[in-house]
Amino acid sequence: MADRARAFNRAFIPIAFAAASLFCVACAAPSSNQSLNLNRHDTATASPVPASSTQTPVASPSASSQSAETPPPENTEPANDTTLVGSYVGRLKLIIPVQGVRPDQLQDTFMEARSEGRVHDAIDIAAPAGASVVAAADGEIAKLFQSERGGTTIYQYSNDKKLVFYYAHLQGYADGLAPGKFVRQGEIIGYVGDTGNAGAGNYHLHFSISVIPNASRYWEGTNINPYPLLRNSR
Predict the structure, then answer these.
(1) Which domain holds residue 183?
(2) Alpha helical stretches, state H, the chain
(3) Are residues 71 and 181 in the same domain?
């Protein structure tokens, strides 16, 4: 009888241990309604990238605004003859857009060569850093723009919106200047600087005039030489 009991125990105990092990595994396994996620890093939701790190800010009524929708002013087409600018001489009354600069101090740099095979299509008006830049004529501010080449810039319409005056390499804008503001001739709109590709310490105002066929696309037009229009100005 004792031998039978010992034999039963030897057979029963391993079977009971195996059954208990299977029961524990079954309890630990996920139910059919659960999914097993073995790689939570791959399925985690990515943190949103701040808009400022991937987009150029759209212009708003502030002096520091800029927009990617405006191409650089170098995209405008150069004047191919003198008749266009000649039609404005004596008719378009401009003033030199930097306070303290006389007409005899101006230099005609309109046709000078620039990098990448470009022509200047503007004149550079040398002046001390921080000198006041003034509106060359009455007109509405079209855009305040940060340009790779031009640095801190201003686009201004003429009163009839057939011309655009472009001011570049500014140190900064006048307080309260914003797109849509109408400025009067001689009103301070910014300050001479060396931003963009002007070169450190090369303080001057890059000033250009373009004839535009469409006021809504103020960056597209035909450049005309400002020098004949400014040399007899006050």
Answers:
(1) 58-230
(2) 2-28, 40-43, 51-54, 83-86, 227-230
(3) yes
